[in-house]
Amino acid sequence: PPNDLKEPLQSYARRLAERIDTSKPFLLGGVSLGGMIAQEMALVVRPLAVILSATAQSSRALPWPQRMAGKMTRAMPDPLCKGMLRLLSWLTK
Residue 28 in 3-state DSSP? Predict the structure, then answer.
């Protein structure tokens, strides 16, 4: 898990990359946030390819409602956070 809620994505990805066996050719992949992490890991471990699904290159590529939701959810109780995310999902359809 992340060291704390404010740990930069790059730092988290570097720590995860340390666990990969790079002695043989490998692929990295990820979905959504996992794709963003896989991209950062690829800068460190150099896989044959990175396979991404439903992801963005960075948080700046996300629409502003999703970026704001991400920032707001860190300070909210879980039930309120889940309700807000459902509303945002419905609004952005």
Answer: strand
Q: What is the mean pLDDT of residues 62-78?
A: 71
- List, for residues 31-61, the tens digit of each pLDDT value: 888 888 898 999 999 999 998 877 766 677 7
The pLDDT assigned to 88 comes to 73
How far apart are alpha carbons 3 and 88 in whole angstroms?
28
The DSSP output letter for 29 is E
The rounded distance, in Å, linking the Cα atoms of 65 and 85 is 10
Q: Are 53 and 28 in contact (CB under 8 A)?
A: no
Q: pTM value?
A: 0.59
Q: Give Cα separations from 82 to 49, 53, 74 (angstroms).
A: 34, 23, 12
- CA 72 to each of CA 57, 83, 84, 86: distance values in angstroms, whole numbers, following the listed order: 21, 12, 10, 14
CA gap 89, 30 in Å, rounded:
21
